[in-house]
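User: Just a sanity check before I run the rest of the batch. Below are the structure tokens for the first item. I only need the designed sequence back.
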């Protein structure tokens, strides 16, 4: 029976047919769709299956595993960043699938981490032996912020989390001022209010207010381009603050979960790669008092494979 696999985020969905080559899952016919251009998840899955026949078998008997941000409550997906609501039953019926499983997007990414080749990751922070150790923290700022823990073996390979919605912790006076301003907009300021694609824009606008500067950029894409080009000092400072703050959260979560390695995924990390390589990220990560020495032994990699979530959906097996 053909297996359709997908990774659906707040901005893009990637879809493929899954296969196996003996060493792990392989993908066939991978395509990317902009979520806002389609009326539903079912429409994306249907568009893919109609345009790309499975390598073998019949699409009318296809099963699907979809990695998607959010948590299931009964038949409905609870998510803050998708363009449309998702019903498990309606999606299965409208897409003409024989079966459908929805799994957390960062559970999928964590499932794929053991299959990453060395050329699919780049070192951000050296530590220990320089090779992956377990358990591994997987953290990703994209449209939102996801996190999961990956184990080497055992009956439960991945522990999912909603760390993106946990309260954002400030570590210096600037961050305290940002949180104070954001609390005037929202009664709860979670990590993804700053440490995500949409959060990056929140951070920029708030820093502009705190520092009495003019807001020039009104999209995350424009802000990142200005920062990478060095043409706007506030844009550069925003990304520097973002990466340092992300380093602090990485340290917090590594301590919380006892992680011995960290993998940074999500679309934003690619765009801020040069800033992550600066000293501030690693310095804030290990600035955890007496346990800083332990965190210096934790390596951090940036994942360079945009299809990692699709690979994880292919690697998923029913619990």
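Assistant: Here's the designed sequence for the first item:
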């Amino acid at each position: 029976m053909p297996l359709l696999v997908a990774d659906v985020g707040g901005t893009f969905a990637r879809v493929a047919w899954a296969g196996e080559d003996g060493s792990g899952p392989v993908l066939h016919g991978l395509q990317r769709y902009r979520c806002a251009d389609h009326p539903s998840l079912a429409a994306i899955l249907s568009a893919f299956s109609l345009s790309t026949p499975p390598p073998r078998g019949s699409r009318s008997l296809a099963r699907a595993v979809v990695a998607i941000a959010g948590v299931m409550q009964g038949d409905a997906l609870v998510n803050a960043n998708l363009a449309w609501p998702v019903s498990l039953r309606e999606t299965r019926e409208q897409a003409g699938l024989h079966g459908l499983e929805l799994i957390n997007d960062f559970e999928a990414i964590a499932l794929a981490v053991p299959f990453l080749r060395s050329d699919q990751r780049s070192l951000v922070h050296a530590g220990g032996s320089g090779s992956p150790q377990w358990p591994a923290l997987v953290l990703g700022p994209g449209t939102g912020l996801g996190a999961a823990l990956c184990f080497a073996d055992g009956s439960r390979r991945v522990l999912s989390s909603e760390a993106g919605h946990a309260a954002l912790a400030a570590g210096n006076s600037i961050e305290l001022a940002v949180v104070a301003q954001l609390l005037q907009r929202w009664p709860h300021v979670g990590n993804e209010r700053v440490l995500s694609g949409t959060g990056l824009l929140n951070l920029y606008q708030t820093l502009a207010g705190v520092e009495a500067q003019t807001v020039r950029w009104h999209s995350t894409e424009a802000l990142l381009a200005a920062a990478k080009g060095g043409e706007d000092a506030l844009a550069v400072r925003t990304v520097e603050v973002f990466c340092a703050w992300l380093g602090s959260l990485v340290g917090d979560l590594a301590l919380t979960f006892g992680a011995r390695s960290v993998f940074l995924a999500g679309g934003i990390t690619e765009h801020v790669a040069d800033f992550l390589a600066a000293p501030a990220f690693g310095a804030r990560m290990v600035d955890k008092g007496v346990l800083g020495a332990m965190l210096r032994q934790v390596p951090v990699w940036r994942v360079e494979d945009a299809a990692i979530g699709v690979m994880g959906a292919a690697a998923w097996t029913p619990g």
